[in-house]
Amino acid sequence: MTERPLRYTLESAWDHWHDEQHPAAREWLVVNYSSLVKFVAGRLAAGLPKSVDIGDLVSAGVFGLMNAIDRFSRDHGVKFETYAIPRIRGAILDSLRALDWVPRSVRSKARSVENTIAELEHTLGRAPSEEEIAEALGIEVEELQKWLSDVAAGSVGPLDHLVADRAPSGVGQQTDAPDVALEERSMRDHMRNEIKKLPERERTVLVLYYEENLTLGEIGEILGVTESRVSQIHSKAVLQLRSRLAAADF
Q1: 109-120: per-residue pLDDT in tens?
Q2: Residues 52, 157: one domain?
Q3: pTM score > 0.90 for this model?
């Protein structure tokens, strides 16, 4: 019997993988969509210490891509790229968490700033300024900004799991319990509402970064500030959201 030639089109590769579970078709799809892995890994690697090898991120992302290929169905009516990117991102984030490379001192700073923000928001009834946070911590604003930069360097995709680690409701979630899916949807809705309440600059940074997929450098050009300053604004916004989610028992 003559073997089927391994010259696939995108359509035929999906057909052969879904209908026949042909390993060569799966391999072809992995190679074809490998640019997605490089895109996500490169975006997450921005700002990470040089000790984190982007090659390790790509390797982890490939597993996420393979999982997406295995679980994807064209019947869901969503583009594969839309379905795959959150799963690639999730696989990379999981690998970084397993490394546990963030210094304890940075975690401590993040908790201090987050707790201070929560206390000030309760007292003031609004988002506190950097000056108010610094005063409550007993440090100068410049020192707070340094803390935020340290937190940024130790925080990879801090909102990604909340924003997009799950596909849209009903897409590829056959194994998710209904109560879990409902809780996650509720968390995302709550977070989006809280983002709308952030100061304009912080809200803009989050929207441009997580929804428009701009880099911190590109956002800096739009806002007329340095990339490091965008990183600080991003960290403060994320810590504010984390404190609000915790207050809402998420």
Answers
A1: 988 999 999 999
A2: no
A3: no
What Rg do the C-alpha atoms of the chain give, in angstroms?
Answer: 21
Please report, as a single letter, which amino acid is at residue 5: P
**Domain region containing 184:** 103-250
**Tokens, residue 223:** 């806002």
**How far apart (Å, rounded) are the C-alpha atoms in residues 34 and 75?**
23
Answer yes or no: is 29 within a domain. Answer: yes
Residue written as tokens 């701009």?
214
Phi and psi at 53, nearest 5°, equal -80, 120
How many other CB atoms sit within 10 Å of the CB of residue 121?
Answer: 17
- What gap in Å lies between CA 208 and CA 82, rounded to an integer? 18
Judge if 84 and 108 occupy the same domain.
no
Give the distance from CA 222 to its chain's centroid.
Answer: 21
How many whole angstroms separate alpha carbon 232 and alpha carbon 191? 20
> Within a domain: residue 116?
yes
- 68 with 92, same domain: the answer is yes
Last residue of a domain, one of 101, 134, 150: 101
User: DSSP secondary structure string, 87-100?
Assistant: HHHHHHHHHHHHHT
pLDDT tens digit string along 83-92? 898 889 889 8
